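Changelog-adjacent note: as of this version, every example in the card shows the full chain rather than a window. The one below runs 597 residues end to end.
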Amino acid sequence: MLHPLPSSTLAISVQQNPKPYILKKCIALLLSCASSNHKLRQVHAFAIRRGIPLSSPDMGRYLIFTLVSLSGPMSYAQTIFNGIQTPNIFTWNTMIRGYAESENPGPAIGVHTQMCVNSVAPDTHTYPFLLKAIAKLMAVREGEKVHSIAVRNGLESLVFVQNALVHFYGACGQAESAHYLFEGMSEKNLVAWNSVINGYAVNSRPNETLTLYRKMELEGVQPDGFTLVSLLTASAELGALALGRRAHLYMVKVGLDRNLHAANSLLDLYAKCGNIKEARQVFDELEEESVVSWTSLIVGLAVNGFGKMALELFKEMERRGFVSTEITFVGVLYACSHCGMVDEGFAYFERMQKEFGIKPKIEHYGCMVDLLGRAGLVKRAYEYIKNMPLEPNAVIWRTLLGACSIHGHLELGEVARSKLMELEPTHSGDFVLLSNLYASERRWSDVHTVRKTMLQEGVKKVPGHSLVELGNCVHEFIMGDRTHPQTEAIYAKLAEMTNLLRIEGYVPHTSNVLADIEEEEKETALSYHSEKIAIAFVLINTPPGTPIRIVKNLRVCADCHVAIKLISKIYDREIVVRDRSRFHHFSNGTCSCRDYW
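Full-length structure tokens:
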């Protein structure tokens, strides 16, 4: 850590006129300090003793440049900068860069403003550094202003500025704007491709991410570690395991599998695709483990239903001397929640505070409410929320409403819904949960009222869908879907599945169809749920014994859960379903969740 010398020491008379060779020697010494804070302090002391004024533009700019290169304190750099009479554009840019790369990028905007006031013309490096700072701040309006200034100054067409703008818009959630700029670029280098691809990846737009990646491949642009991290993120979200494996092979081929960040993304991919065996293999082959690696595997085990294994891994992590973070404990509490380990969850919550000194955040309290709600302790969950030291957010109340819907607590469900009306009045999922709660009580007039309100407020229900990957393509199905080219064959397989299920003793759970219709109509509706259509599609397109992997955006209903257990036995297939909150590994008539989800 560098510390600024007293201001009295810095305030050396500008009247001094050091010999040129001494100044050159100081600058040469500074340039040799590229990796040593200690040497920089020695050169600084030498300059003071020899009467070199730090207000000298040459001495000041090299000292600031060296400080920024060594990630020294920006307060020190700012003190030196303030003493320079006429800083040149290089020095202004270095100050902006220093703040952009620091933990406090905000002052970079002020430096740019001061630069404009002093009528200093920007160059090709000014806006890339400034936009990097603005992207970290997520300051969309400021970035748009800089974009306008760049256009006015005729710098928008420069490739460095264009790359920075694409990165800025993508990082700030403006993926379409980033793509629009990207398409208008005459020269698209790897940095530009990475920025636009990552813009879609971080904004949960996996289809666009994969489309751009394929276009990049067709144009002969070779990916690097940054590209592959974005690709793996998108593949994980879609459950595109085959594509992720292709990326893995490429990583091994070019040696990127040894890159810790890329390897952690690969670990996350396998975990989110329900392939814990390969996730563990990636973890075991890491040359350098980190808390992120341990946490990723702990969370992966937890969401896949292997809570006890997750907690054993946490204990091993402690034995190995890794210091747990607040995110690690989110994974630990998640493991307890999804395995019904209520007492263990509260014990870890207490340890987190007392032994690790971690102050619980809203995510930790959310895990605790979920822990109680999943275990059917809905009233206790409500009391827990009322006694929380933090103000409960919409996620907390939605968790309670979901528990009420599953376990049939109408009164508390209405309390949770009233709170959600204050916080997020137009969230479609809340209307659906309350409607389902009323329907489970056969209060059809209340169901009608809720759905009428949705229409009046313009709230649209998010349609359920299921995704499956086949032939390097992700196929999407919705309930009753008849748009696929293989629809006729799919529905013939559905009919076969239904007949074989009945032979196995399957009885449709018509109570899951929360609508006031006849039983026969309910049974038909259950047959056409998106995950069953997806399973039929895979059965007719893959050889016997091939595992089936499905990603569903909503919670699997109880009827589909029973049916898929039997389908796994009838067709002798491993079926992995990732729903909104966890994984279900079906095999030989059983599920890894043990009917607890």
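Structural remarks: The longest strand covers residues 465-470.
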